[in-house]
Each structure stands twice: as structure tokens, then as C-alpha cells.
Amino acid sequence: MSIEEVGSYRDRGLLPPPRRVRGREGDVAFYQDHAERLRFIQRALELGFPLEDIARLVDPQTLVTSGDVRELARGHLAQLHQDPARWQEAIATLSRLIAACPGTGRRQECPILAYLNGKPGG
Question: What fold, for 3-116?
């Protein structure tokens, strides 16, 4: 990812701003949670999610249940089917994740988010 892309994600609210470095006034840095969020964004982009949907996926206030996440992913999958040659691998992965999502329970239990977070079983 380029510095410009990271700045764009931060400006769009997808990435929290860097935090002040302890003991160094005026210095800020990105930390492990920033790197994890950037990997989440990258995986979502590889599945063809637009930035608007990624913003919804990273915000726990917008999609509060696994069903909410599954419905967003279903809508996105329908869009990917408009260009199946380009998105063949993403369609297969997202179809598998949607099928594994029970659609009930908290968002943290959704295998779609587990995959995007890089967790096993996702």
C-alpha cells in the first residue's frame, strides 16, 4: 500500500489517526492495530468491496449482527456476478463465507469478518 492510500483510508475514516509516540512530543506513529486494520482493508479490497462498504464493515455501530454483515456481503456478491471473469476467485471465497455465516448472533461471530480480520476459520 502506498502512503497516499493509507492517508486516503485515514481521511475516509477507515483507519484511525496515528497516535502520539510516548515521550516524544509532536511525533505520531501507527501501531499494530493500524497494521491489522490495513490488512483488513486489503483483504476486503481483494474481495472487491468498495470503500463505502468497507467503512460499514469496520464500524461496529453500523452492522451489529452477523446477519447485517451477511446481507451486505450478499448484495456485494450480486454485484461481483456482473463481471464473473474478473472476480472469479472473490466470488468463490465470498460465496463460501456467506454460506458459513449463520446470520444470527453478534457481528464478531460472523465468518466473513473473521476472514477479513485474518483469523483462522474465516
Answer: Multidrug-efflux Transporter Regulator; Chain: A; Domain 2 (1.10.1660)
